[in-house]
């Protein structure tokens, strides 16, 4: 797609400034506005021989501003462009019409704040860098589990809170995707707590159940505070919402 847009830029149509008639050739067909140099400039539609197309704003022969690119597969990107690359705010839809990603882009990659919907029904809402989860984000798993915390290079990194499908929750510090060091885990009603080491309840390898050795809630809160987090709220009690441009993803 970038190669085709670049080729269009290298060989601009030599037409008078203003609204151009449809132009057809090896690069495809263009219908839209041109500048005095004959470059695509303003609003216009380019249809490529591959079956792909770009409809939107142009600047000196390049896709620039707001526009929609339709891929041969039927997927489409609609949003902001900067010199033929996706840059700014935009939405990527699959051929089915379902939104795959809605958020910020930089140099044709997911970068900044955005929400990504995975095929299995999982969802990530948070920071991105170079197409990978990086920074703070929330990953909601298809099985009902959720992780809220730091990421680096696509893996959990730094403090984070993980909520199990059954409602138990824990706080830990992560390195390279794995919990490490001290942490704490709470029961569904948050009335019981367990001390963790490297993601496991100290003294047992089993899932915490009633009757196992617990620690006072105050100690668990202190363990959470040491990693820079608060004790998780009870199930069904939501934390204060943070306004996000990605809330409208459907």
Automatic annotation (TrEMBL):
Pfam families in the record: MORN (PF02493)
SUPFAM superfamilies, per the entry: Histone H3 K4-specific methyltransferase SET7/9 N-terminal domain
Gene3D superfamilies per UniProt: Histone H3 K4-specific methyltransferase SET7/9 N-terminal domain
Signal sequence region: none
Coiled-coil intervals, chain numbering: none
Keyword Repeat: yes
Matching InterPro entries: MORN (IPR003409)
Region span, Disordered: 1-65
Domain of life the protein comes from: Eukaryota
Record key words, sorted: Repeat
Family matches, as PANTHER family: RADIAL SPOKE HEAD 1 HOMOLOG
Designated name of the protein: MORN repeat-containing protein 5
Provenance organism: Prymnesium polylepis
Taxonomy of the source species: Eukaryota, Haptista, Haptophyta, Prymnesiophyceae, Prymnesiales
């Amino acid at each position: 797609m970038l190669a085709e847009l670049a080729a269009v830029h290298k060989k601009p149509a030599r037409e008078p400034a203003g609204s151009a008639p449809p132009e057809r050739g090896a690069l495809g067909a263009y219908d839209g506005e041109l500048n005095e140099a004959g470059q695509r400039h303003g609003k216009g539609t380019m249809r490529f021989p591959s079956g792909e197309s770009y409809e939107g704003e142009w600047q000196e022969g390049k896709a620039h501003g707001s526009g929609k690119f339709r891929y041969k597969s039927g997927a489409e990107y609609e949003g902001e462009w900067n010199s033929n690359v996706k840059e700014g705010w935009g939405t990527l839809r699959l051929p089915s019409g379902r939104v795959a990603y809605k958020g910020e882009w930089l140099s044709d990659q997911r970068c900044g704040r955005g929400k990504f919907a995975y095929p299995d029904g999982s969802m990530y809402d948070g920071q991105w860098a170079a197409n990978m989860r990086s920074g703070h984000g929330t990953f909601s798993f298809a099985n009902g589990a959720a992780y809220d915390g730091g990421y680096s290079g696509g893996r959990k990194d730094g403090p984070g809170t993980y909520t199990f499908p059954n409602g138990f929750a824990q706080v830990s510090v992560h390195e390279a995707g794995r919990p490490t060091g001290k942490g704490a885990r709470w029961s569904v009603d948050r009335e019981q707590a367990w001390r963790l080491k490297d993601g496991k309840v100290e003294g047992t390898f089993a899932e915490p159940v009633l009757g196992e050795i617990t620690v006072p809630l105050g100690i668990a809160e202190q363990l959470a505070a040491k990693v820079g987090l608060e004790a998780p709220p009870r199930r069904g009690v939501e934390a204060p919402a943070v306004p996000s441009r990605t809330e409208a993803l459907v």
